[in-house]
Amino acid sequence: MPRPDTRSGATQARDTTSRKKASHDTAPRGTAEDDTAPNDTAPRETAAGDAAREKTAPEASGGARESGGTAQATATYLYGIVPGDVELTPERRGVGDPPGMTGLVRHGEIAALISDLSLGRALGRPQDLVAHQGLLDDVAGEVPVLPMRFGAVLESPEAIVEELLKPHHDEFLAALAELEGRAQFVVKGRYVEGTVLREVLREVPEAAELRESIRGVPEEASWDARIRLGEIVNQAIDAKRDADTRMLAEALAPHAVAVVVREPTHEEDAAHLAVLVDTDRQEEFDAALEAFADRWADRVTLRLIGPQAPYDFVTGRPDEAGG
Question: Pfam families recorded for this chain (predicted)?
């Protein structure tokens, strides 16, 4: 069963009587220029949706569609679960080549975000992952969404209703209620080039001595010293990263619903956090992050990416519902 992380116990008033039309014009924001490293925003393995992965694109036996007089096998690709009162303008921006037309299939008070998928091509190109993630993140900027793992394919919209929405309706509805009025952001800190190495050499005498000892010495004649220096520097940077990550997480926690520490994606990462934020406290959170950015000026560059689908705060599997 998908279940968002609500460890802080934060609550808020929620208005679910109306719903904006889900649009696709939300861009990542940042305290510095954003890059597009896939690991920054890729769907996490904790996202809901294992039950929907029982059929992958090359194996699913969908219906047939006429294309130029030739029958073409199709299936239904599943992106995530949204509230049933959401309106979505269909667009041809889904996964596949050509991209599938997006849409919704509803049951009760929830709906599945889907697109049609031609089975003539294998699923798994980088463009497919980008399309999957981009659609989820754009929708998450407007309404709560439970993201499915990349590659969730069922035979038809009817199969999604019968195999997923009906049996897990109440679980999905409860999880969406927990996410109402909240958004996930990713905070990344990157050490300014050379800064952390200078700190290590200043703070660890052995590292400074080793570096001086190999200066001007041929590599083959100083191999052991170079290896030892690399070990010391790596261990020191790991310790600094752990301390800096903990410091940043503790500073942001009072302004967020929950904070999750992510693994670093670069050797010079200072911190990598996923943060669930109440949207009515967004300015407060931004101010706290900006204050920390000022505190770390000339040492660490901080970036804020999002809003995103809550990949880090939806856990469990639909097929585990009810034990």
Answer: GvpL_GvpF (PF06386)
Instruction: Identify the three-state secondary structure at position 33.
Output: coil
Strand-pairing partners, residue 208, are none
Kindly state the tokens that stand for 138: 């754009």
* pTM attached to this predicted model: 0.73
Cα distances from 186 to residues 25, 43, 55, 289, in angstroms, run: 18, 12, 31, 12
Q: Is 233 left (phi over 0), alpha (psi -120 to 50) or beta?
A: alpha
Contact 288, 13 (CB under 8 A): no
110 closest CA partner among 167, 70, 60: 167
Query: Amino acid letter at 249?
Result: A
In tens, the pLDDT along 28-52 reads 333 333 443 334 444 443 334 444 4
Listed residue (11, 49, 308, 8) closest to 177, CA to CA:
11
- pLDDT tens sequence across 81-119: 999 999 988 888 888 888 888 999 999 999 999 999 887
| Other beta carbons within 10 Å of 216 | 7
State the Cα–Cα distance between residues 136 and 145, nearest whole angstrom: 8
Domains and CATH numbers, the chain: 3-15+37-180 (no CATH), 185-308 (3.30.70)
